[in-house]
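Can you give me the bound-state structure? Components:
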Amino acid sequence: MIQVLTGNHSAAYAALLSNVEVVSAYPITPQTQIVEKIAEFVETGKLKARYVRVESEHSAMAVCIGASSAGARTFTATSSQGLLYMSEMVYWASAARLPIVMPVVCRTLAPPWNIWNEHTDMLLVRDYGWIQFFAESNQEVLDTIVQAYKIAEDERILLPVMVGLDAFTLSHTSEPVDVPEMDLVKKFLPPRANVPYVLDPSNPFTLGNLAYPSHHMKLKFMQHTAMENARKVVLEVDDEWYKIFGRCYSLLDNFMCDDAKVIILTIGSSAGDAKEAAKYLRKRGIAAGVLRVRLINPFPAKEVSDILSKVEAVAVVDRNLSPGNGGIILEKVKSSLYSLKNRPFIKGYLAGLGGKDITVEDYIKIFEKTLESYRKGDSDMEWFSINLEATSL
Amino acid sequence: MKKVAAISFPSKGVAGKTGIWRVRKPILDRNKCVRCLICWIYCPEGTILRKEDDSVEIDYEYCKGCGVCSNECPTKAITMEEE
Amino acid sequence: MNIKDLDREEYILSGNSSCPGCPASIGFRLIGKAVGKNAIIVIPASCMTIIHGVYPHTAITLPTLNIAFATSAAAASGVSAALEIKGKNYPVIVYAGDGGTADIGLQALSGSAERNENIIYICYDNEAYQNTGIQRSSTTPYGAWTTTTLKGKQEKKKDVPKIMASHNIPYVATASIAYPIDFIEKVKKALKIKGFKYIHLHAPCPTGWRFPSEKTIEVGRLAVGTGAWILYEIENGVLKLTGPSKNLIEEGARKPVQEYLKVQGRFQHITDEMVKVISCEIEERWNGIKMVINLQKVNGT
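Here's the bound-state model for the whole set.
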C-alpha cells in the first residue's frame, strides 16, 4: 500500500514489518520520530515487542546486545552524538556477531551544535565491523532495513547492519512509500533462527570471556570473512526482494555511468541532485554520470573500480571529513583503483559539511570544474564553496 | 548454534591445577570434625568436597591453600602445614 | 535455613583464576546455591572476568554474558526483555564489582532500576578496583590506602544501597560473604519478587585490603561486628535489620572499629584523628538507619 511517509516513519514501518521483538532507544534529534512511532506501534499492540526506554544510547546498544544474545530480533536507532556515545557497544555488537539492525540518521557532530546532515558520524564507525548502507530515498530506507535483517541473520554473515539516512532531507521529508504487505514480508523474512547462539540454561555457556591472542586472531579472521561474504549476500537478498516486491538496489546505483566520460561519485540522498546535474550536462552533450555507493562497508571496491576504469574523470563528493586527511570516501575510492593499469583522473570535493546545501547548480559546477581540472591536471582536493575571505564565519 | 564468537563451555581447572599455587596445605583431622559444613560453605574455591554423609574431604588438586577453612573451623579440625 | 539444606551442586568450578581467599568467588558460589541452574548471569569487566577463565573454557556452569564495564544493568535488561517476549521465565542476575556498579555503571544501573526491570543486581563490593590493581573507587572507605590514594582516601564511601533505595524498587538489601545464610535468604527472596532487586554484598579482599588470605571471612565478620557494614533489607520500602546487625543498633553493642581496621594493611597508616572520622561516619550511618526504623514504628509499618 502506498503511504506518504517521512524517512523516519519509513524506518519505523520497517521495524514493524520485520517483527522486531526488542526495541531499545534513546531520543536524539533528528531520529526521534522513529522511536516515537515504534512506541505507538508497541502501545497499540500492532507490534508485539518489548520497548526498553533506556537512559542513554550506550545502554540502548547494551540492551540490544543482551536481548540479541538471548535470541530476540532487536532494533535501535540513533544519530550523531548518540552514535559516538554508544560506540563502545557498537563495536561490541559486531565482535559478538549479533544480527542487530540500526538506522542512523546522519547528522553533524558538535561542537558547534548542528543538527543538519553530514556523514562523518557513520563513517567514523566504519571500521567497527557493521555492514553499512546509505539510502537515497525513503522507500530505500524501508526496503533496506527489512533486507538488513535477512542479511544480518544469514549464517554466512551474522553481523549487525547500519542503515544511514540523511538528517531532514530524508528523515523529515515525506515521500510516497510502498509499504509491503506483512504476509509477503513474513515469507521473505522468517523469524530469527537460533543463530549465532541463544543464552539459555538448557545449554549453558559463557559469552565473551578472555581469549588468548591466537584465538582472538582466529575470531577476527572469521569476522572479516563474514564481512567479505556480505557483498554476495546483499545481492542475493536484494534479488529475492526484487522477485517479491519488484524493487532492487544492488551495491551501487549506476546512473548513466556506462558511457560516461565524467562521473560524480557520492553517497546518500544528495545523489538525486547530482543526477539532475548529470541529466543537464547530457543535454549539453557532455557524457556525465553519477555513481552512488549504497553499500559503504564492506566497500564494493571491485564493482566501483570496474565502473570507474571506463571513465576519464571522477569527482568524489564527500559530505564528511577526516581532518588533515580529507574525505573518507575519496581515500576509499582511490585505494580501490590502485590495481588498475589505467586509473581515471580523480578530484575530491569536500561539500555540504554541517548541512550546507549542495544544489543541482553546485553539482553542475562540480562536473564542470572536474573536467577543467582534468584538462589542467589539477587533482588537488577542493573545499567546495567556502568563502575564506569573509570576515565572519 | 554457530561458533562464530567466543563461546566457552564449563570446565574445571580453567587456570590449571591450581593446587600448585599452594604454599600451605590444609590438613583435616577427622576425629575433630563435627560435620558442621562451615569449611564447605566458606571455601572460596569449592575444594572442600561435601560427601553424602556431610563429612568433608579436601581436593588438593585445586585447593589454593588460602586457609579460610582452617581459620573458620569451630573445632580446629583443619590445620595449615607448610607444603 | 541451615547450611545442611543448601544445594550440593557447584556453579563455579574449582581451579579457576581467583586469588586465594577471594570473596568474589565465595559470593558467586553462594549465589549458585541460592538460584540453582536455571538462571542467566551477566558480568561486566571486573575480577569475575578474570576468575571464570579463558576461552574456550569457563568456570561458570550457568549461561553467562560478559559485557562492557558500564553496561551490565542495561545488558541484563535486554536479556530480561528477550526472555519475557520469548515467554521464558529465568532469573537474570548481574554480578558486578563496585567500580562497575557505583562508578562507571551507575547510570545504566539507575536507568534499569527506574524502569523496574525484572533483574537481580548483585554488587560484590571489594571497595576498590582490585582487578586493575587496587585503585580507589567511590566505595573505597575513608582512610583506606589504595594505589591511587597513597595517604589514604580523603572522601567517604558512597552509599550505593541508599541510592538504590531512592529508586523505590521492590527490594534492596545489603549482605556480607561472612554471613552466607543471610545472603542466600536474601537472594532467594529476590527470586520471588518481580521487578528490580538490588543486593550489595560486602566482600573483603585479601589482595587489595592487605590481610592474610585466611582472614577473608574474619574481616567480613569484623566489619559487621563493629558496625562498619550494616546488614539490612528494604522490602517495598520497609527497612529491617538482619542477621547480627539486628542487635547492634546501640553503639555500645558494637566492637570498637579499631578491631576491624587493625587487621587490614590498607589502614596501617591511619592516625587517631582518622579513626575518629571513621567512627563518626559509622555512627552517622547507624543514625540514619535508626531514624528510618523509628519513623516506621511511628507509622506502624
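A couple of observations. Chain A has two domains: 2-245, 252-383. The longest strand of chain A covers residues 101-106.
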